[in-house]
Amino acid sequence: MTGCSRSGDGPTMAETPREAASQMEQAFRGASPEVRAAADAAAEAMRNGEFERAVVSLTAVKSAADVTLDQGLAVHSSTVTLEARLVSAMAAGDENARRAYDLLKAMKNK
């Protein structure tokens, strides 16, 4: 069995960007085309290490009016996972991660 959560336990926190991306795709499979496109873009960006694009896409998904509880949990999990990855990359001197982290902080303050 594949997936990010155990049967019956509901959504769990993703441990890697790849897991977060899978959660996003699964949670938004039945969403409206616009929201699903943003969720898919966030998933692709997380998989490819495109930090700023991931933050922008997550922000678009988070601001959608018709997000369900499971979808909101997937966004939260992805945000937390992305933030941990950004902190790690910043510690290694990645300036792209620093810019994305600043964007993520701004998103969280909205």
How would you sum up the global shape? globular
- SSE run: HHHHH
Please give the alpha-carbon distance between the first and last residues.
37 Å
Radius of gyration: 13 Å
Give a written overview of the molecule.
The chain has about 110 residues and is mainly alpha-helical. It has one domain (about 15-110). It has helices at about 15-25, 35-50, 50-60, 70-90, 95-110.
SSE blueprint and pairings:
Layout: H1 17-27, H2 33-48, H3 51-62, H4 69-91, H5 95-108
Helix pairs in contact: 1-2, 1-4, 2-3, 3-4, 3-5, 4-5
Task: Looking at this protein, list some descriptive labels.
single chain, 5 helices, 110 residues, mainly alpha
Short description:
The protein is mainly α and 110 residues long.
